[in-house]
Amino acid sequence: MKCLVIGNGGREHTIIWKLAQSPRIKKIYAAAGNGGISEVAECLDISPTDIEALSSFAKSQGIDLTVVGPEAPLAKGIGDCFRKQGLPVFAPGRQAAKLESSKVFAKELMREFAIPTAEFSIFTNSREALLYLEKKGFPGVIKVDGLAAGKGVFVCHNRKEAEEALNKIFTEKLFGEAGNRVVVEQYLKGEEASIIFFTDGKDILPMPASQDHKQIGEKDTGPNTGGMGAIAPTPIVTEKLFAEVINRIAKPTILALSHKDILYQGVLYIGIMLTEEGPKVLEFNVRFGDPETQVILPLLKSDLVEIMEAVLSGNLNKIKANWDSRAALCVVLASAGYPGKYEKGKTIFGLREAEKLRDIFVFHAGTKREKGKLLTNGGRVLGVTGLAKTPKGAIENTYEAVKKISFEGCYFRRDIGQKALTQH
Ligand code: AMP
Ligand code: GLY
Fold first, then answer.
1. Which among 115, 140, 119, 116 is positioned nearest to 129, based on CA atoms?
2. Tally of domains in the chain
3. Residue-wise over 328-346: b if at least 16 C-beta within 10 A, else e?
4. Of 18, 94, 226, 314, which residue is the least packed, with the fewest Cβ within 10 Å?
5. Is 313 domain-assigned?
6. Per-residue pLDDT at 151
7. Residue range 261-268: average pLDDT?
């Protein structure tokens, strides 16, 4: 069969790497791909958000399965557009994608169906939002309603910080229409984890619990990034906690959606805060996580194509996925300056040496090939994933491989996975 994968990052490279292992796959196309993806797939010069061009391509080439990586095309309705034309697509539709593209929609759904989340209220102006924050007491959290590439969440410790955030949203309109409404919510204390599962709209098939490392600096300091590394399974999510998330959050969310006649087919990602009162939802993403995918899919022993087909045909209950019992760690190598300004076009060295090591996989994010050289081409450049019997072993194995790779200004956190070791 022929597959089309939409997106350019480490997540998409991992999805393609896994799909390519299926004996069913004859050819993979990527829109638009990167320097690593181009080694396994044919890269197309089509933007991931150009839904019309993507569906014309899928139609003309007789693509048997399209897999959508990032949120932007999902929020634009790529799932509905493909399905309307009879094109098989692994993607929730626009209405389902609102779980991620509208925080107001997600919070109201959780309130209606008693799904555990932070207490909240919704506002369309600074004055009332500020009054509410003061009444509830600081710290408080302000979130713009729409998609904001991870930059629309403000944890405010005092009135001044809240005023600054609200100013950016309502006066400077930094987020455009995405900031027409805000959710103001209670600050939750605890450790964060990502619970990601496949669903066909009726049943769910969970993947191992993982943990992202969002901040740029070690010990979780500095600004948030797309994610600087991940571990799976994370020891901070015990079996009991996992079952609680599945029964009190994951299943009720799918039921809530079907109650509203919203069919959810694809992957649902639930960002959880493990609070003293139990797990609560921080956010939903309607897609695989990045870099969580880089630690989850290398642990999947089953055929990803079969799981995706079962999702599309509504037969997920017939699938039993096999998972590797080892631990996986991913360390992201980023360009100097990221998540702020950074330079591109630096030559990357040592990749082949790293890849020669046992149980090491290097997934590309911001890379490109030019005249036989591999160059940096983004903020997050590579994700190095290592497997081992224990989390400690996975950390050692991965950092050994990271040492082999270099490019000018290469930055990575040296403490990925440590939190999981010290806490349990
Ligand atoms: P979100 O995109 O909603 O997951 O928010 C991004 C990040 O902001 C989360 O990963 C948390 O680190 C932090 N955050 C969001 N909501 C809260 C909350 N209610 N309490 C504490 N931290 C939060
Ligand atoms: N790792 C966070 C995300 O994919 O949104």
1. 140
2. 4
3. bbbbbbbbbebbeebeeeb
4. 314
5. yes
6. 84
7. 96
Instruction: Verify that 338 and 411 share a domain, yes or no.
Output: yes
Same domain, 205 and 313: yes
Mean pLDDT to the nearest integer, 247-261: 97
On the question of pLDDT at 424 being above 70, the answer is no
- Determine, yes or no, domain membership for 277: yes
Q: Give ligand 1 pocket residues (Cβ under 6 A).
A: 118, 141, 143, 153, 155, 185, 187-188, 192, 214, 271, 282-283
* pLDDT band, very low/low/confident/very high, at 39 (cuts 50, 70, 90): very high
Q: Which CATH number fits the domain that encloses residue 81?
A: 3.40.50.20
Instruction: Return the percentage of the chain with pLDDT > 70, whole number.
Output: 100
Q: CA 199 to CA 315: how far, in whole Å?
A: 10
Average the pLDDT over 325-335 and give the result.
Answer: 98
Q: Which atom of ligand 2 is nearest to the CA of 283?
A: 5
Percent pLDDT > 90 in the chain is: 97
By CB atoms closer than 10 A (0-12, 13-18, 19+), residue 377 is buried
pLDDT recorded at residue 423: 60
Q: Which of 161, 180, 199 is the last residue of a domain?
A: 180
CA distance 46 to 60: 14
Instruction: Identify whether the C-beta of residue 146 lies closer than 8 Å to the C-beta of residue 175.
Output: yes
Using 50, 70 and 90 to split pLDDT, how confident is the model at 213?
A: very high
Instruction: Kindly state whether residues 254 and 353 are assigned to the same domain.
Output: no
DSSP 221: E
Average pLDDT, the chain: 97
- Indicate if 399 and 370 belong to the same structural domain: yes
Q: What is the pLDDT of residues 360-372, one digit of tens each?
A: 999 999 999 999 9
The structure tokens listed for 170 are 């309502």
Domain termination residue (choose one: 90, 109, 135)? 90
C-alpha distance from residue 297 to each of 86, 209, 302, 339 (Å): 28, 12, 10, 26
**In this structure, are 195 and 173 located in the same domain?**
no
Q: Which domain holds residue 404?
A: 327-423
- Measure 378 CA to ligand 2 centroid, in angstroms: 17
pTM > 0.70: yes
Residue 105 lies in a domain: no
Q: Is the peptide bond before 139 cis (omega within 30 degrees of 0)?
A: yes
145: tokens are: 């309603």
Tell me which residue has its CA closest to atom 3 in ligand 2.
Answer: 289
Quick one: 361 and 384 in the same domain?
A: yes
- Would you tell me the crossing angle of helices 103-112 and 94-101 to the nearest 10 degrees? 100
Nearest ligand 2 atom, CA 227: 1
